[in-house]
């Protein structure tokens, strides 16, 4: 078992869909013993061998050490009472619900020893995701960080407003990048490439370029200049993206729209 998990007691996942399922996959791949995990989901479908899977929050059991709330924000009301009844002072409640504020969670789960918001993204399944954190976890900080570290880059938000901004960038971000890959592939197809080949090239190109940027001390701007030979092909393409800061403007509006929706959701669940 990896050191990260050696001190970790029972962990319950309430909801185990796209996002909590991706986190669980990585935790298991990284050495979390499946018998420590209980998954609660209405379908009762087991996400992995050895993981206890039940349809409802267990009653009359010792409270878990960590409870990950992974349902849709709209389902909070449906699960809140049974979760509140099952947790105790030893429970750290980790919510990945977008747009549900810490104060709302703390009020609903007042028995929990610690309440924290986490905003992961789906690449955590590969251990190459991002997890933003916000909350007051006191002496449980190291334990929480050890749990999140195998998922990828872990960053604390200075305040809840910033947490929402991090959610817009990194939580939603994979979807925006998938659109970008699609758009590059479609553009390649428009040039004349076969569609399947254009998608393969676009995906591999984004993967490689992201890896280069992640492993480099240079800024993305410098890396772009290294691709663009003076008087060459790339500069003509960059001129289109840079004209009127077209790409930057598009993404500024994209992230602002996502961030705005997060604040609306917070108001709706307050
Ligand atoms: N998708 C993403 O990229 C990200 C999502 N999030 C947050 O993660 C949360 C989940 O999103 P996502 O995984 O995409 O959604 P999914 O629809 O994929 O998963 C929802 C899960 O909730 C379960 N569920 C529904 N009702 C109940 C219930 N009454 N009791 C227990 N479990 C229940 C479902 O069970 P079953 O499987 O049996 O149907 C399912 O496992 C959201 O709050 C979202 O804001 C945060 C960051 C990124
Ligand atoms: O779309 C959503 O609301 C969630 C939050 C971040 C990614 N998915």
Give an overview of the whole structure.
By secondary structure, the chain is α/β, with parallel strands linked by helices. It folds into 2 domains: 3-158, NAD(P)-binding Rossmann-like Domain (Rossmann fold), CATH 3.40.50; 173-265, ProC C-terminal domain-like (ProC C-terminal domain-like fold), CATH 1.10.3730.10. The protein contains 10 helices and 8 strands. It has helices at residues 18-29, 76-86, 102-108, 141-148, 160-171, 173-191, 195-214, 220-227, 233-242, 246-269, and strands at residues 11-14, 37-40, 52-54, 66-69, 92-95, 114-119, 129-136, 152-156. It has an 8-stranded mixed β-sheet with strand order 3-2-1-4-5-6-7-8, with helices on both faces. Helix 5 packs across helix 10 (246-269) and helix 6 (173-191) crosses helix 7 (195-214). It is elongated. The two termini are 40 Å apart. The relative contact order is 0.10. The model has no long low-confidence stretch (mean pLDDT 96). Residues 98, 167, 171-172 line the site of (2S)-3,4-dihydro-2H-pyrrole-2-carboxylic acid.
């Amino acid at each position: 078992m990896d050191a990260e998990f050696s001190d970790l007691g029972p962990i319950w996942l309430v909801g185990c869909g796209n996002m909590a399922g991706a986190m669980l996959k990585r935790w298991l791949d990284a050495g979390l013993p499946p018998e420590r995990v209980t998954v609660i989901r209405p379908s009762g479908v087991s996400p992995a061998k050895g993981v206890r899977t039940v349809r409802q929050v267990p009653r009359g059991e010792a409270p878990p050490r960590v409870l990950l709330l992974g349902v849709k924000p709209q389902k909070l009301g449906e699960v809140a009472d049974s979760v509140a009844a099952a947790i105790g002072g030893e429970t750290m409640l980790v919510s990945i619900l977008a747009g549900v504020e810490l104060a709302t969670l703390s009020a609903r789960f007042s028995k929990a020893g610690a309440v924290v918001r986490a905003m992961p993204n789906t690449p955590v399944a590969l251990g190459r995701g991002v997890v933003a954190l916000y909350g007051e976890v006191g002496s449980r900080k190291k334990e929480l960080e050890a749990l999140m570290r195998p998922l990828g880059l872990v960053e604390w938000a200075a305040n809840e407003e910033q947490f929402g901004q991090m959610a817009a960038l990194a939580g939603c971000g994979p979807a925006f990048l998938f659109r970008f890959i699609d758009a590059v592939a479609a553009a390649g197809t428009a040039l004349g490439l076969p569609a399947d080949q254009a998608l393969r090239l676009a995906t591999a190109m984004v993967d490689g370029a992201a890896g280069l940027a992640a492993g480099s001390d240079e800024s993305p701007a410098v890396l772009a200049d290294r691709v663009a030979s003076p008087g060459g092909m790339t500069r003509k393409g960059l001129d289109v993206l840079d004209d009127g800061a077209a790409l930057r403007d598009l993404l500024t509006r994209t992230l602002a729209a996502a961030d705005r929706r997060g604040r609306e959701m917070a108001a709706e669940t307050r």
